[in-house]
Design brief:
alpha+beta; Immunoglobulin-like; five-stranded mixed beta sheet; Phosphorylase Kinase, domain 1
């Protein structure tokens, strides 16, 4: 976040700007004050910091206004409220005024997954109800992910950012044919393939979030976009109860149904999913389980527009965490007999030949990569990353300090861990500052070198790699990147094990100078 500077307007419309909250590719969000009603609001404005044609500018503005109209007609406790939308009379700046939320997104907050499955289902049930309301209004979100879910101090969740929502009307399609918005880690199979989507695509994304929160592992985690999409299309994650025995089989069923590959095998609506979640929380058999015959593998054709290239992978931070929420239970339902059902076997899957060929090529490339890594590992050994541990099947509840190992650790004293900082920036020179738990641990100047000159435009790239020794345990990391006329600061938390190294990617964006932190 940053406070008003020379580039921050004092007012937009009638709203007084207080500070910048965040930036995206098409918008900047400010905390602002509405003097007419005497309340704080979140103000989202279009801020195109890169050259565009008049046609492109009109498209951005149309999408922006469409977002306002979509969100403005939704009224539900689980969806962010839109108060106003318009254009600044003096500057022509477009804006949306929304309720100001005191909370943190699922991708920012703590504690980190895995969490108590009951608390996860409580939040999941409310999100399913909110999606049901949006879908009933003809709106599909299309980008349900941890970063778009805010958890308030009360523990109540709210869905944000209908910026890429698709309105179900006969006269308008917000997204172009074959264009896939969304985050691959939480994207439905049909969306990943560029096919038509319906409300059940949002329920798939919600199922992927619930799986992550309950198990502490991504349902479709992998090292590349193609590998992630391959898992989304063809591989089911292991049932949560196999990773956390305290999770009941009925909870497995709810998540498995939401994550079914074929839309017809998922919940038909957010309302039915919310009802099954309420039943599981009350200790009853899910009322809609009897009408489900198990998931099947759909036959899908890849729809890739000619000349298109895959979108960049946008995973959430590996250290992504959920918000601490109030420990409350749902109102008790009348007692009834609970009938437990065994998980039904799924029929064999048939994979289209074209997709099988693609998967075959990916497998061959993966084998070649493994051979190369094996050759390098003979001379260089590095600690496994958190994602690698997850892929290897490490249980989220496993602890290196248990049993005899814990006794030896206590006797010998815990050895320090390391924080590896990998910075990349596009400027002539920046100053990097790192604070660990409020204490300055690193400050250095990082120059950028020229990588390309295009029609008078000079492109630069600066990189640095630093190691900071930290004590084992959880730490708050604050990163600041400053240059001649600006600075960006972000925070992230992480847990460090003795003698381990955690890598943090620090990236300053080329266009909007947005600072992102991601565990790797």
């Amino acid at each position: 976040m940053s406070f008003p500077s020379e580039s921050t307007p004092p007012t937009v419309g009638r709203y007084e700007i207080r500070r910048e909250i965040g930036r995206g590719m098409m918008g900047v969000v400010y905390e602002a004050f509405d003097p007419a009603l005497g309340r704080a609001i979140a103000l989202k404005v279009i801020h195109l910091a890169f050259p565009v044609t008049p046609e492109e500018s009109a498209a951005f503005e149309q999408r922006f206004l469409t977002e306002a109209r979509i969100a403005g007609r939704l009224s539900h406790p689980g969806i962010v409220v839109v108060h106003d939308a318009g254009r600044d009379a003096d500057t022509g700046t477009l804006f949306i005024a929304m309720e100001y939320l005191e909370g943190r997104t699922l991708s920012q907050s703590s504690p980190e997954p895995p969490l108590d499955w009951r608390e996860v289902f409580r939040v999941g049930g409310r999100l399913a109800e909110a999606l049901h309301h949006a879908h009933a209004g003809g709106v599909i979100h299309r980008d349900i992910k941890p970063a778009n879910i805010m958890v308030l101090a009360s523990g109540d969740p709210k869905i944000m950012d209908f910026g890429i929502a698709k309105v179900e009307t006969a006269r308008m399609k917000l997204t172009a044919t074959g264009q896939s918005f969304g985050t691959p880690l939480y994207m439905s199979p049909e969306q990943a393939l560029g096919q038509e989507v319906d409300p059940r695509t949002d329920l798939f994304s919600l199922g992927a979030i619930l799986y992550w929160l309950v198990t502490g592992r991504l349902a479709f985690g992998a090292e590349s976009m193609m590998a992630i999409i391959g898992k989304v299309l063809h591989k089911d994650p292991p049932p949560p109860s196999t990773l956390r025995p305290e999770v009941p089989g009925d909870a497995d069923y709810v998540i498995a149904r939401a994550l079914a590959k074929a839309p017809a095998d998922r919940y038909p609506s957010g309302g039915t999913m919310a009802e099954d979640i309420a039943d599981v929380l009350a200790g009853h058999s899910p009322r809609h389980r009897a009408d489900w015959s198990g998931a099947r593998a759909p036959v899908m054709a890849l729809n890739v527009p000619a000349g298109s290239t895959p979108a960049p992978l946008e995973p959430p931070p590996a250290e992504a965490k959920t918000s601490s929420t109030a420990r409350s239970s749902s109102p008790a339902r009348p007692e009834r007999t609970a009938t437990l059902h065994d998980r039904r076997p799924r029929p064999p899957r048939r994979v289209p030949r074209s997709l099988a060929a693609v998967v075959g090529v990916i497998v061959l490339l993966g084998i070649a990569g493994l051979l190369l890594v094996a050759r390098r590992s003979r001379t260089t050994a590095s600690p496994p990353s958190p994602s690698a541990e997850a892929e290897a099947g490490v249980s989220p509840s496993a602890s290196p300090s248990s049993g005899l190992a814990g006794l030896l650790s206590a006797l010998q004293g815990e050895k320090p861990a390391q924080l590896a900082i990998d910075l990349e920036h596009p400027l002539r020179s920046v100053t990097l500052r790192i604070w660990v738990d409020g204490e300055l641990a690193k400050e250095e100047r990082v120059a950028g070198r020229i990588t390309k000159k295009v029609i008078g435009l000079t492109l630069r790239k600066g990189v640095s790699h630093d190691l900071i020794e930290v004590k084992p345990g959880r730490h708050d990391i604050q990163v600041q990147v400053a240059w001649d006329d600006g600075e960006r600061t972000q925070r992230i938390s992480g847990t460090f094990k003795p003698e381990s190294t955690r890598r943090l990617d620090v990236t300053l964006g080329r266009v909007l100078k947005d600072l992102t932190l991601e565990w790797r």
